[in-house]
Amino acid sequence: MACLLPLSSVLHRPHHKQLDLLAAQRSLQGRRELLEQACLSHTRKRRVLSPEDLKHLIVDDKHSLIYCYVPKVACTNWKRVLMVLTSDGRYTDPLAIPANEAHVAGNLRTLSEFSVPEINQRLRSYLKFIFVRDPFERLVSAYRNKFTRRYNTAFHKRYGTKIIRRHRLNPEPEALEKGNNVSFQEFVQYLVDPRTQREEPLNEHWERVHTLCHPCLIHYDVVGK
């Protein structure tokens, strides 16, 4: 999970700060170029995005920012930061905001809430950023968080029972009822099973980044890791 550094540690850096910034700029440029090359290689046709496609893009009108959040890629902390930036003083310390409050619908505006002209104006003029993570690490993180924690009973019922029913030989009645002991292998089998996406969209915690944030259709100014 990404860390939030105190502002003093960022603002009062030694004289190597300029070199650090140049290295960061080169790294960001390299990521953008890699993304563009991948999009050219793998995108067969472009399509027009609808407001429905933009639910993961959080808007900060005060600072002209758009952030596409990807679950399991430090999105809780970034939502906390944006709540501080957009709150007009209600929130002052991002780390004091409870994790569940950071995910409450309505605390932050998304691009999907605007009209088409307003969407286009913001996409043209705002700084757009996204954070990414090794996809396999992200899957492991999603599995640990949603299937190995006892308190996630809703996920166990919603997904665990289905996974066990489909991918476990001779499951015990309790496992079929509670869905609380899914193995990582069973989770992966569920993800690669063609029936999974035919039945319903993938959950956002393991949905692919290009489906959530459309990086081949939206030009992100910053791709962070």
Top keywords for this entry?
225 residues, alpha/beta, five-stranded mixed beta sheet, 5 strands, 49% helix, 8% strand, globular
Write up what this structure looks like:
It is a single chain. The protein is of the alpha/beta class and 225 residues long. Among the domains are: 51-131 and 212-224, no CATH class; 136-192, no CATH class. The protein is built from eleven helices and five strands. The protein has helices at residues 7-11, 17-42, 75-86, 99-102, 116-125, 135-147, 153-167, 173-178, 184-192, 194-199, 209-213; strands at 57-60, 65-68, 109-110, 127-131, 222-224. Helix 7 (153-167) crosses helix 9 (184-192). The longest helix has 26 residues, at 17-42. It starts with 6 loop residues before the first helix and ends with a strand.
Task: Spell out the blueprint of helices and strands.
Layout: H1 7-11, H2 17-42, E1 57-60, E2 65-68, H3 75-86, H4 99-102, E3 109-110, H5 116-125, E4 127-131, H6 135-147, H7 153-167, H8 173-178, H9 184-192, H10 194-199, H11 209-213, E5 222-224
Helix pairs in contact: 7-9
- The strand line-up of the biggest sheet is 3-1-2-4-5
Contiguous runs where pLDDT drops below 50 for at least 5 residues? 7-11
Structural class: alpha/beta
**Percentage of residues in helical conformation:** 40-55%
Cα radius of gyration in angstroms: 20 Å
Order of helices and strands: HHEEHHEHEHHHHHHE
Largest sheet: 5 strands, mixed
In one word, what is the shape? globular
Q: Give me the number of helical elements.
A: 11
Mean pLDDT: 91
Measured between the Cα atoms of the first and last residue, the distance is: 10 Å
What is the strand tally? 5
* Fraction in beta strands: 5-15%
Family: Belongs to the sulfotransferase 2 family.
EC number: 2.8.2.-
Organism: Seriola lalandi dorsalis
Membrane topology: Single-pass type II membrane protein
